UniProtKB/TrEMBL annotation:
Catalysis performed (reactions): a 2'-deoxycytidine in DNA + S-adenosyl-L-methionine = an N(4)-methyl-2'-deoxycytidine in DNA + S-adenosyl-L-homocysteine + H(+)
Family of the protein in this entry: Belongs to the N(4)/N(6)-methyltransferase family. N(4) subfamily.
Record carries keyword S-adenosyl-L-methionine: yes
GO MF, one annotated term: site-specific DNA-methyltransferase (cytosine-N4-specific) activity
PROSITE patterns xrefs: N4_MTASE
Pfam family, one: N6_N4_Mtase
E.C. number: 2.1.1.113
Top EC class for this record: transferase
Keywords: DNA-binding, Methyltransferase, Restriction system, S-adenosyl-L-methionine, Transferase
Protein name, entry field: Type II methyltransferase
Amino acid sequence: METIHRVVVGDARQLSSVDDASVELVVTSPPYPMIEMWDDLFTDLEPSIGDALESGNGRAAFEAMHAQLDQVWDELERVLVDGGIACINVGDATRTLDDSFRVYPNHARILEAFEARGFDPLPDVLWRKPTNSTAKFMGSGTLPPNAYVTLEHEYVLLFRKGGDRRSFEPGADRRYEAAFFWEERNRWFTDVWTDVRGELQALEFDGADAESDRAADLRDRSAAYPLEIPYRLISMYSAYGDTVLDPFWGTGTTTLAAMCAGRDSIGVELEETFLEVFDDRVDGVPALSRSIGRARLDRHQTFVADRRAAGKPPQYDATHYDTSVVTKMERDIRFREVTGVADLEDGAGYRLTHEPLTIDSAE
């Protein structure tokens, strides 16, 4: 099996390189309006945003920033297939402007934007991001009533395009082999993920640009969501052969997850410098993809052993692995590992070769 992963330098407000109804899943994390590190980006896109911030008009700046994101959501409505899923990772913002402190509810504004475009909202997910803990807003310290809650969670907002779910031919291998284990379903499809943690990433820039202002700026905003988040979402909401789009590509974490999950992907990124440092991540994909598949199998083996010890042994045998499973739908699970990585002929991405993950001995 081969997968194709394209990375385009461009503006997500105009996804001209992506055909209509050609994407089954979107997994992305946009720049968060009213987070100070993104002010310059939004102001470059719309100068009136800088004016609003300068004058202390937070409400106007908030709405103008989201107006830029709205243009991306228009494009997602165009490129997603009917029944396709959009997963938007976003956090709310707290900020003081004109001596007034308040929260700016990014998740609520994005929810409204997708509903206005005909998407059906699905139950969302909260995950804790403790890397935010260095920016606590204490207000009056330990005295009531003017202290403020610290924001240490983010949302994964989930939307389906149109009212109908995607359909597959009966017994489709690409769907059944992409199944997840019963215990993974119970852990993943809950509305609070307590087993995922935020992470900070350090990017290395080589050559003359290493000390440039642009490199420093990119390094400052290189924190990405953990690989577990896009990998989990891709496993939950797509099948083998599907294409995953990330219009705010950044450090390429969604593409990395798609590679390990055996899906095609498209990434769109304004800053070409990010693409220059991604090759090192791709080099490690063969080992990473195998380790992820092995870890999932190892966790499942532990689950099976614990279930047997509790007197509730699973009743079915897996087809491709020496293990038991709880439901019939799990029997054909088959992980993929990357065995070859090559650049695309036009240099705008990667072609990966995948083989079924095999286990040398019974576990």
